[in-house]
Amino acid sequence: MQVTGCGFQNHHGTEWVCSIQGVMMKPLVLLIAISITASAPAQDTGISPATTEKSALSEDAAKIMARMTDFISATPAFSLVSDTGHEVMHKNGQLLEFGSRLTLTIQRPSKAIGRFDSRNGDSSTTILDGEAISVLSVTGDIYVYDTTGQPGDIDTSLEFLANQLEIPRQLRDFFSKDLTASLGSAVKSGYYVGESMISGVLCDHLALRGEKEDVQVWIAQGDQPVPRRIVISYREIEGRPQFWAQFAEWDFSPELSDTTFAFSPPDGATRIHFFDDAP
């Protein structure tokens, strides 16, 4: 795939217009950024739109979000699997959906591995092993990677990635030790919609709103209040394209070993210097 300005070209030469900047370039970070920068559209729930716009989070929505952020921030290790979809506008004006599957494992304070497998067969993997950061990208039969020193814990490392690879800073916020404060600065208003079932799990449905996005998030009830589904509408982009993520598997006791976060480039892989300080 070749990226050209605000569009991209696939292997067959077909040109598309990119509706969500950076979606195809940074798929791993986008999903995690979504999980914290949420802001969602108002719906007919008997709550005045004027009221939801004036206030920040309603009291019940704030309590539900606080439970989620406190739980994720305090969890020492977890893994998840999520299917995602995002819309891209064709040059003829039609919105088309592309998607990926994310597999993510976190071990605080400094280890993480995230792999995105796109529907077209391409993949990208980012690994923090506590001492080094490694990135591997696979497009067809082309393997490229880079490795550099890890500057610190997950928070510090994601800040480094944000600067080095122009990754949205919201990625680091999702795994921040102060997640509640990070989320509070991103959400401008929000309210509780009601209860809803997502893949057999009873959830609280929230509508949130930020500067440029409308977001709906479904948070599981019970003692593991994690997001189960997120839908984002980009208000200021033509066609109001959407991104969605369905969190199918959360594991709060993942089996971890010395090899979980180990990186060894595949045979035939080419090193490309993604990082400014790479030797």
Task: Walk me through the structure.
- Residues 1-55 and 168-175 have low confidence and may be disordered.
- The protein has a 15-stranded mixed beta sheet that branches.
- It contains 6 helices and 15 strands.
- By secondary structure, the protein is of the alpha+beta class.
- The chain has one domain (15-271): outer membrane lipoprotein receptor (LolB), chain A (Clam).
- The longest helix has 16 residues, at 59-74.
- It has helices at 27-34, 49-54, 59-74, 154-164, 170-174, 179-186; strands at 2-4, 7-9, 15-17, 77-90, 95-107, 111-118, 123-129, 132-139, 142-149, 189-198, 201-209, 213-220, 227-234, 242-251, 270-271.
What attributes does this structure have?
15-stranded mixed β-sheet; outer membrane lipoprotein receptor (LolB), chain A; 6 helices; 279 residues; disordered N terminus; 19% helix; single chain; globular; alpha+beta
Helix content: 10-25%
Average residue-wise pLDDT:
77
Terminal CA distance: 27 Å
Q: What is the correct CATH architecture?
A: Clam
Poorly predicted regions are 1-55, 168-175
Order of helices and strands: EEEHHHEEEEEEHHHEEEEEE
Per DSSP E runs of 2 or more residues, the count of β-strands stands at 15
